[in-house]
């Protein structure tokens, strides 16, 4: 981890508000240069990245919970193995992004504590329950599909460690989406009961998946800044539209219906127009009043508390190894 007292934004360097340095920094962004951990950056840029990256990492970790709930109940061994591997990938993604935040001079333990005490946010989508096996397929198809649309853009973000993390993560997310879509295809082509289960999952997950991209940029307090600094390459609405355009054809291919009576193709824009999103529901969930908000935080706190002995053992072992190395030297 970077020692923040020695980071490029420490008191020993010019102020983050120094207009000349900010202008030089923004010129680098305009030229498409990658910003690396040892480069000077405005303090606001650093804080925005920590906020955004930590929320992303938290989402990967909390996102393990709705799917992990189905590992022991998956319909066969192949499905169990696939779901187990996917949940393991998500844990790795979270740890990988936490590592990225540490290049900005923050301790991951501080970030994890913010998640545990409820002061940090994570994606609202993970506060919805997984009621049937079809929900697992829908998460792979919709949620991971939406993540790919967003993260493909983040792979070109101005901060090098974050962009490189997205390249690796998107490769695995593509497998996750294929896995989910294959589950939904199997159900949609199964018995009438299985197809009905798949359709019911689609009905519940469609609108929360559209909310994943966040509100329109005009209603976002951070979008303008993140766009100016090259962290965001597309607006929330542009990304949401791309997701809709991609998903309509996928739903038709397996004869499932997206639950939107206003969904229609616009010849002029060559996009699929869709109905209004219930942003009141979105903000309720973000503020903690979703179906599973309390359960998700309780589960993370329980896991953290029960894992304390592992952290203590690892710390003691590291100290012992360090002492032995010092003595040998």
Explained architecture:
The N terminus is likely disordered. The chain has about 325 residues and is mainly alpha-helical. It contains 13 helices and two strands, in the order H-H-H-H-H-H-H-H-H-H-E-E-H-H-H. The chain has a two-stranded antiparallel sheet. About 65% of the residues lie in helices and about 0% in strands. Helix 2 runs antiparallel to helix 4. Strand 1 and strand 2 form a beta hairpin.
Provide the fold topology.
Blueprint: H1 19-30, H2 43-62, H3 64-68, H4 77-102, H5 108-116, H6 133-154, H7 160-188, H8 192-211, H9 223-228, H10 236-253, E1 264-266, E2 271-273, H11 279-286, H12 293-306, H13 308-328
Antiparallel strand pairs: 1-2
Helix pairs in contact: 2-4, 4-7, 6-7, 6-8, 6-10
Mean pLDDT score: 92
Sequence of secondary-structure elements? HHHHHHHHHHEEHHH
Work out the number of β strands: 2
| Percent range of helical residues | 55-70%
What's the arrangement of strands in the largest beta sheet?
1-2
Query: Which parts are unreliable, with pLDDT below 50 for 5 consecutive residues or more?
Result: 1-16
How many separate helices? 13
Taken as a percent bin, the fraction of beta residues is: under 5%
Largest sheet: 2 strands, antiparallel
> What would you report as the Rg, rounded to the nearest angstrom?
22 Å
First and last CA, distance: 25 Å
Offer a quick outline of the entry.
Strand 1 and strand 2 form a beta hairpin.
